[in-house]
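dude i think i finally got it to work??
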Amino acid sequence: MLFTSDNWAGVHPKIMDALVAANGGSVPAYGNDDYSSKVRQQFCDIFETDCDVFFASTGGAANGLALSQLVPPYGATFCHEVSHVQMDECATPEFYTGGAKLLTVPGDHAKISPDAIDEAMRFYTPPQTHHVKPWALSLTQGTEAGTVYSVAEMQALGETAKRHGLKIHMDGARFSNAVATLGCSPADLTWRAGVDVLCFGATKNGALAAEAVVFFNKADTEDFAWRHKRSGHVWSKGRFMAAQWSAFLGEGLWLELAAHANKMAKRLSDGLAKAGCNIVHETQINEVFAVFPEGLADRLISDGAQFYDWVYPGDQWDGKLKRLVTSYVTTVEEVDEFINRVSQYK
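look at this
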């Protein structure tokens, strides 16, 4: 009954096999190998466009690097008030950008609306040197509430950002889960909707340490290779990064694993709701946010279940909100065991 986080899961066997296969012989270093050339073409095929791809070991570094390319030190990025870049990255974006501010925006279910961007821009219009200058909008897909932006919502946000001269960064640590839920083209959720750079995560969906910074506008990548190198995220043995991504993207593994995690979360969410728990956000990816009846969470934990307390700014649930996350290794049996205990104890 492990529902802490999807990054607790191990490496998927197909990805581990790909690493082992890549281990034979000697190949050029720093991404100048056939594995890396192949996987870059895979990205272009999946996104249906010629994109530039750079790899990083962590999602935090990927987000920080991407934003540092879009936003100068005197600039700012709009993001949701509970977004990962704001709440959980220990000022990594500020570090990589040289001090650019994050400006938080409210919104139901961790989503930003076009109206909220218009309202946030009022203070900064027209620009003046006493204030930072907004340069980017950061969107999390799926969000920190387990919700997703639909294609139509992304298009509306893209139009709003363009009207205000804002670049769009997408934090896609669970981008796979969002695509699996929506069943749409990855291109429709990104560059076709105005996204300039996507930080595409594989680590939470079966990889070892694999994050990709995907630029859809090559004008945005000028000199990024030097920024990437300076950050220390250019792997010497780049074939091992590329091998992970090649297996992850190959034969739709990324969507297969995400779809399973999503399915387990929906089963968990539906079961908890039926047992009388309050599900506070619609379960659209592999995260469930629930409030249990008094004393039930402690009893479940004493039985060996694991999940996290979850606190939002202005927490309306008085500290009782819990987050439960499923992964590609979550089984029907452990979900049903957890639901059965909830039903038994409530």
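Residues 268 and 335 are 6 Å apart (CA to CA).
im so relieved honestly
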